Amino acid sequence: MAEPTRPTEPIIEVRGLYKHYPLTRGVVIRKQVGAVRAVDGVDLDLFAGETLGVVGESGCGKSTLAKLLVNLERPTRGSIRYKGEDITRLSARALKAVRRNIQMVFQDPYTSLNPRMTVGDIVGEPYEIHPEAAPKGDRRRRVRELLDVVGLDPEYVNRYPHQFSGGQRQRIGIARGLALRPEVIVADEPVSALDVSVQAQVVNLLERLQGEFGLSYVFIAHDLSIVRHISDRVAVMYLGRIVETGRDAEIYDHPTHPYTQALLSAVPVPDPSVRERRAAAGGNGGRIILSGDVPSPTNVPSGCRFRTRCWKAQERCAREEPELAVPERFREAVGPARHDSACHFAEERCVVPSD
Amino acid sequence: MSPDTPPDGPGTRERAPGIPPAGPGTLLEVRDLRVEFRTRDGVAKAVDGVSWSVAAGETLAVLGESGSGKSVTAQAVMGILDTPPGRITGGEILFRGRDLLKLKEGERRRIRGAGMAMVFQDALSSLNPVLTVGDQLGEMFTVHRGMSRKDARAKAVELMDRVRIPAAAERVGQYPHQFSGGMRQRIMIAMALALEPDLIIADEPTTALDVTVQAQVMDLLAELRRELGMGLVLITHDLGVVADVADRIAVMYAGRIVETAPVHDLYKAPAHPYTRGLLDSIPRLDRKGQELYAIKGLPPNLTAVPSGCAFHPRCPMARDVCRTDEPDLSEVSRDRGSACFFWRECLRG
After folding, report:
1. What is the ipTM of this complex?
2. Bond into B166 cis (ω within 30)
3. Better-scored residue on pLDDT, B120 or B349
4. A109, A131, B16, B266: which could form a disulfide with B261 (CB 3.0–4.6 Å)?
5. Distance, CA of A33 to CA of A14 (rounded, Å)
6. Per the domain annotation, does B14 fall within a domain?
């Protein structure tokens, strides 16, 4: 990876991770006719105390990746090492101990909380599963503390989820994620379902908690501006694979993969003067409008999986799958363009017009 | 001219401050619209005295968060509000000068589709899953234009071409689930365009779509609007999309318009603290690593809207008068209004 200066070992190390869901036909005699290649060869590292942002469009496999990281799904192949230990091979008992340290915050605060449980029971439930984390007599107090930490009134312990707004429910989900004092939190679109004015509150909360508890985050989202705000490093996914990864400024200001460039240029900028600058630049004004849709993960194109929508695609792209590494032309370079990008024809391109 | 049109024609009556006067180009004018919902917890004033207008060739963005009343306004305008529990308790909706609220359902239907059409957020649940897209598009022509099925089918293919669905002739016989999200939204747009309306109301048309597909769909909408000279009312919560396509913007909060302005003016210097808060809470490059600005608290429950200015419990500028008196939209400039007592201060930043 392009992080030679980092002294520490990664806290999570993912190598060659695959998750294929079989497609079967027939009832009595089930025959596998294909597979949904949701995660299709992912390598990534997460270091202690950092936030890794994962961006990509729907169907790119980012949510499956999240489930694999917290072991809600077993991978088809590949390894996920937590502090050097491959958690995909652990026994149920050993896995339980590891799970305490890797917790998840879900996207939809409306369906990820049990409507029949009180807030106190929801936030305290992890202690039922991991009784060693808190002695029984102490749990009530801990739950109230957690509510306080996430900015909810501790007096609310006996209320039910429906009595809360979306933003408050997401705080409940975060409190539950924190209950076992994990080291890693995998947050899958934690603010996407929230109103703009409430999103900022939850993002601030996540950042504050990171400092307070020394958490490492895997922050999965499709909102590129929020990911940039919160992330130290960013990985861009397309159709089950990471196509580009680097520090946030490397990805946002110096993208070299055409998909990242298209993605960034498509984001509407909340500044009407950009529209004029784009118009003045002529054509699409630097905006890349991709044609077509993402191919189905049951039928991944040969070679580079982005080639069917790529304006640079050549014959080589159909033949040869580009690996995720620093592209050859940037290998000698110094500067932000030198980062991992899985493209045969990687080059820099300014995608957002500036003043 | 219908008997409902005032004798002196539209545009000469008193106008709301900051809303440009209705002129000959004005397609739709909403005046002091009020919509209530009866709920178990009491009466919710979902839309509480909203006025705006849109001209031919113009794009008006109605911006607001969930519960601000933006979608209810659109439903009332289209005449598809669920009544009950909803009820229009006041105001006028003037389409080319005729008050739609005074029309009979039959007349209203003729305007719906041919005069104005709507694009919904969720194309999958807005299309009929058991009819082919060709049948659904063709229905517009058989029902409204009395065409034969065969001609209607040809028209459907033409429309699908127009919204750039590849291989339209082959796909016209397919069902909605066979199309991707972006393609389904194109079909929705095709359906709205079918009878060549003067006005399209698009309610969060790209919210359910991915960024790259969102760009395609917004591009298509903008281009068709230019080509056909339609008016477009864009209902959205996305400040990015607004900056990208809108000419004018009306910001809603708790059922009211709190600010209305040409899009450049608003982004340059908002004249209402709520708008300012929304703009400030967008993550920006130069503020990375710092806390995001967050509007404190939550949007109000519509059955218990705070006294005075509905935004006062969340407002950093609130003073005593804000708790007791409700600010009307005051005129900031000829085409700009703000419902804040202290808009001058807010403008200064």
Report:
1. 0.78
2. no
3. B120
4. B266
5. 28
6. no
